[in-house]
Amino acid sequence: MATAPGKPRHARQRMLDAVAEAAAASHVDEAAECLAPLFADIDWLFALATHWIAPMRGDPAALPTQSAVRSSGSILSMTLAAQPPVRLALGLIEGAAERGDDGERIVGQPHISFSGARGLYRLLSPTPVEAMLGKHDGDRLHTRAISLLPGQWLSLDERHETLRIEPQDRPVLMLHGRIDRRPAPPIRRLALDDGRPLGTVQGDDGFARAGMLMSVLRAAGTREAIPVLIGMLDRPSGRERWTVMRELLALDAIAAWPYLARMAAHDPDEGVRHAAQAVLARHGSIGEAA
Question: Record's Gene3D superfamilies (predicted)?
Fold first, then answer.
């Protein structure tokens, strides 16, 4: 049902209710269905925008309170509502005039990323936008050029689907919904030309924040991090468990040694077992000290 432009309170509540319902969903597909009405009918967004702009008519410095960040140079993102594992945001890819590069930009190795999340996208700009839809099928990468039309919206399983929009002459405004999976799969980057893997990074925001704090404690030389790190050795992802073990070894190798030996013998991930066994073989004298 459309939201009357003059009712920003109802529009905001509609948005918050949808995000809360999505956050409480038992499956990412169900969560995506909860967010879908916000993408099919965006009168609620126009009502909120009208409400946010009104104070600026009298005071240009009266900006909305929503958090906005810049990423990847030419991309701005403003969070509208967030309740883990769900985030709803506006994304702006700046045009040539805003970038100040006269249409020229420095481009690194072309790649395409798969976040592992469930993503919803709606084009808010009034003109069509050229984009690329990528699909990863086993060891093969398939890409095709698409034209996003004003009002068109997509729902993607970003474990093997992704949308790539390059900065263009005109600004590109998108409504973006993201539903993270639990546990979060690694974010994969593939070369755009031949699909070869370029690397993976950990996609679990909670683990990333915890790991950052542990690194700070290790840098400070404090032993307070040891029991916390030991408690994190049962993380569901083998990559995460090995990251924790590296931090623990760097902080106190003797305290870490019994857990390293257990990991080498019993970890369910073959790669983690081999990595732990390699450390045991190289530094066996530490085990004797323990």
Answer: Leucine-rich Repeat Variant
